[in-house]
Amino acid sequence: MTPDCKPRRSADGTHLDEDRLRTALDLAASGLPVLPLRAGKVPFGNCRACKGNACGGRPNMKNAGPCECASVCHAWAAATTDPRVLTSPAWASAWRKAAAVAYHPGGAGLTAVDLDDAAAVAWARDALPATRTVPTTRGEHWIYRGAMQSANAVRPGVDIKSLMSYARWLGPGTGTMADLPGAVRALAVKKPSTVRPAQPVVTVPALAGGGECRHRTPAYLERGICMAEQRITQARSAVHTTVYRTFLAVLSAHGGCGCLTDSHIARLFTAAQVKGESPRHCTDAWANARTRLGL
User: Which of 4, 28, 26, 6 is nearest to 108 (CA)?
Assistant: First the structure.
């Protein structure tokens, strides 16, 4: 969906609370899921019921999540196109304090390549196909039609904002929006900074006395890891819980024979981080599962 509306301003050129809300409603009507940002270009914190994801996990990609929270919770996942939510009493306080309007590019099938400085802009002009551009404080956003995995620092001064991310609304920009090119997708594949798994700080011990793996064939282990990755990837709610239970299941089946390698663990951590888990949460969940099993 093309974001064509312009930010509204007061007579002195500054944004008003009403202007931000009006802009948000216009963007939502055009198909862009939106949310308010507070000072510092950061989302509002979760409400008490959702603090620490106590509600059961992050909401889904589109609008309000399975926790059915009415507040502006879960950062990018709070973004919505529903005018009833945007104008609800629960969101009113956030709009009064908001410093900017943001949108969830991936939720609208878009990708914003965030070029943070002049050098990054110069690189993009040589390396990427022309598309709609939006000036930022120090660089530009290049907006493409198509969604992908978000990634930070894919190269100096370049971030990719799409799924599970948000971008500040800075106006409609100029130029014709192009389809998302393979060159942009390749940036995340080569340097997936946001999902690179932390090196596990624990290792799975082998059987006492160096016993033989009871699974006998690596195909059994590979099938188990693939199923675990799929279970995490398909989680639509309670991601924290799903990750922990999946780690627990893997360790229950494979943790006592020493057949798990750092590569297997890294695959599980990567799947969890794609769903929004931090490296620390992954490490903690893995350690807690080992502790519960006495490994």
Answer: 28
Tokens of 26: 């216009």
> Three-class SS string for 98-164?
CCEEEECHHHHCEEEEEECCHHHHHHHHHHCCCCEEEECCCCEEEEEECCCECEEEEECCEEEEEEE
Show Cβ contacts of residue 19 under 8 Å, excluding neighbours closer than 6 positions: 7, 8, 9, 10
Pairing of strands 140-145, 178-179: parallel
Q: Do residues 228 and 251 lie in contact, with contact meaning Cβ atoms separated by under 8 Å?
A: no
C-alpha span between 52 and 110 (Å, rounded): 29
Q: What is the pLDDT along the chain (295 residues), one digit of tens a residue?
A: 555 555 444 333 434 467 899 999 999 999 999 999 998 888 988 888 887 777 765 544 343 344 677 889 888 888 999 999 999 998 988 999 999 999 999 989 999 999 999 999 999 999 999 999 999 999 999 999 999 988 888 999 999 999 889 999 999 999 999 999 999 999 887 444 444 555 454 444 433 334 445 555 667 777 788 888 888 888 877 788 888 888 888 888 777 776 777 778 888 888 888 888 777 778 878 878 877 777 6
164 and 106 in contact (C-beta within 8 Å)? yes
Q: Are 20 and 103 in contact (CB under 8 A)?
A: no
At 161, the amino acid letter reads: K
Cα–Cα distance measured from residue 41 to residue 39, given in angstroms and rounded to the nearest whole number: 6
Name every residue whose Cβ is closer than 8 Å to that of residue 50 and which is 6 or more positions away in sequence. Answer: 67, 69, 71, 73, 74
